[in-house]
Protein 1
Amino acid sequence: MSGTGTGRRGWRAAFRGWRSRRPFWGGLLLTLGGGWILLTEKASLKVVVHVGMQGLAGYLLPVVMVICGLLALFNPSQRLFYSIVGILCSLGSWVTSNLGGFFIGLALGAVGSCMIFGWLPDQEPRVGRRKRRKAERAAAQDFGEGAKAV
């Protein structure tokens, strides 16, 4: 019975390690934004072909957003290019796709692109407030004990 929990903990730790090496939340938001815009499109393919390039762009930009979000997740070395293309497609969806999926897809895509652009792969992991305060207290106690010993 105790062996069942270790496999799950290992999977979660592996996913957490994978997620920490890439702009996970930005890629996810950009992908969700493109998906939301695609879901709000109500024109059939016959109407899109009849309207022409404007109708095609209504489907093309959210698809590019989804692709850029997924590529940012699985190829984070090119994240700057994907984030710039993602923000341009998000802003372009304002005109081509029902006001950017009624503002929701536009906002998700813009925020996700900005998060991808701002992600730094070589940055040290942030230390939580509790751990930082605990380290400060330990350092203060060590300093106090060192002063008493002198």
Protein 2
Amino acid sequence: MPSMLVIATTAVPDHLRGALSRWTSEVVPGIFVGSVSARVRDQLWQAVTETVADGAAVLVHPAPTEQGYAIRTAGSRRRVPEDFDGLTLIRMRAALLVKETQSHP
């Protein structure tokens, strides 16, 4: 039975966006919404995880949990979903501090 899904992407290859738009609607740049079977959802997510490259993606879909949905992520993200006694909470990773050193003559 089809169920709704949302996939949010950041900096992914154009061909991945094209593949996702075959099954879903890109309602705003990088946000895909659709109603597909669990099998199609899993195949789409497999394609995302295999081609995300340096980008990032998040999938949200209905699931038999207390919250009623599940979250999957691929690629590098600052926000990381974590299970906390049956609830999915979002943990923030520390921002990377980049220091540029300048050489003085």
